[in-house]
Amino acid sequence: MTAAIAAARQGAQVTILERNDRIGKKILATGNGKCNLSNLDFQTEYYRSEDPERVGTIIKADAVRQAQLFFEQIGLMIKSRNGYLYPECEQASAVLDVLRHELTHLNVRVVCDEEVVTVKKRAGDGFALETKSGRKYIFDRVILSCGTSAGLKKGTKTDLPKSVASIYGLDYVKQVPALVQLRCEEDFCKALAGVRCQAGVTLRVGNDTYREDGELQLTDYGISGIPVFQLSRFASYGLLREQKLPVEIDFLPSLKEKEWEEFLRARRQTLDYKSMEDFLIGMVHKKIAGVLLKQCGIRPAETAGCVNDSQYAKLSRLMKHFPMTVTGTNPIENSQVLAGGIKLTEVSENMELIKCKGLYLTGELLDADGRCGGYNLQWAWSTGITAGIAAGNRRALF
Question: Which one of 35, 56, 114, 374 has the largest count of C-beta atoms within 10 Å of its C-beta?
Fold first, then answer.
């Protein structure tokens, strides 16, 4: 939609071929229905790619301001909440509505229920497209903005970036779930299900170590929440090479190791009369306390003064280094985005495919995925606007 608007503003006649019965439905699920448009703390380092230096040449430093202006110009009020940009009304539907209204205003033709199955370069100039319904279209320029299967029902789409890469002989990075929950093998997961807490999560993949802090969600199958989402793309690729991955949880991320050890020592001296169940009140959630005590071989009713040094040492370590084992991710339909895609070196700075002039690639088709917080939508807006301007400047159909 942003590509179409940008191209139409250049004077191009524009048609959107949409496989769904309505355009832009995926926007409605973003930001828990509030649509986190972008982030004022924008840094290209927050994107992951096999060609990270190319990210900065495609998405410029003023990308957030450009996106703000784009949406303000089509009538959307935007507000910042701790740097996270949302529509003032906090309704994703408002973002979709202003985009749809602008398409109408610019006389962009939108054809829904029209799934493109082939895009062929013509002998002379332009492209021939054929859809699943058997209809054929001829355009001078084509922008592919078809996204991926992330967040869609199982079987909704095939691996579109891989298909495009195969057709045009492009370098491609295998796509895996990102911003997704992680599944763990421990049998105590069910006992921790439903707990939310501030924690640090450290993932080890081979010789690399990654840590993220934030609100952790413990589930009956493993771990979830923002810090887990941030780590999940590394886990996904690690799982391709290794069967299992170790992860450690720090249940007291605000305390350094020595601070925690001193605190526990003082608490043990002053509260030695309490049962261990009561001893841990206020430190961690009761469900976590129960699992920790069981792991240390400590009875909940046992008084703190009766617990031996080795048990305290184990409790101290587990509180800051609680081990779990990642065995997989939730499936693609549960992921917010996919990592991987067509390598960025295959497109120019205006998103045109180097090996096929007049064909542009945008968004999730490309090997760039961002952190939580509006970065992936910003990538969509930026690549769409850039491709739209470039294609539209040729006064062409697409």
Answer: 374
Supply the DSSP string of 213-228, one letter for each residue: EEEEEE-SSEEEEHHH
Residues making up the chain, counted from first to last: 398
Query: Which of 329, 348, 366 is the C-terminal boundary of a domain?
Result: 329
- Model confidence over 201-228: pLDDT tens digits? 999 999 999 999 999 999 999 999 999 9
Domain holding 249: CATH number?
1.10.8.50
- C-alpha–C-alpha distance, residues 169 and 173, integer Å: 13
Q: Based on the domain organization, do 299 and 207 belong to the same domain?
A: yes
- State which residues form the domain around 258: 181-329
Q: At 198, list the tokens.
A: 């501030």
Lowest mean pLDDT among 84-88, 157-161, 373-377: 157-161
Q: What are 121-160's pLDDT values in tens digits? A: 998 789 999 999 999 999 999 999 988 877 666 656 667 7
Q: Kindly give, in sequence order, each residue whose CB lies less than 8 Å from that of residue 10, ignoring residues fewer than 6 positions away.
A: 388, 389, 391, 392, 393, 395
260 and 351 inside one domain? no
The answer for 112, left when phi > 0, alpha when psi is -120 to 50, beta otherwise, is beta
pLDDT of residue 170: 94
Report how far residue 248's alpha carbon sits from residue 251's, in angstroms, rounded to the nearest whole number. Answer: 10
Q: Give the tens place of pLDDT for each residue, 229-257.
A: 999 999 999 999 888 999 999 999 999 99
Q: Express as a percent the part of the chain with pLDDT over 70.
A: 96
* Residue 279, C-beta contacts closer than 8 angstroms, at least 6 positions apart: 267, 271, 304
- Could you give the CA distance from residue 132 to residue 253 in angstroms, rounded to a whole number? 53
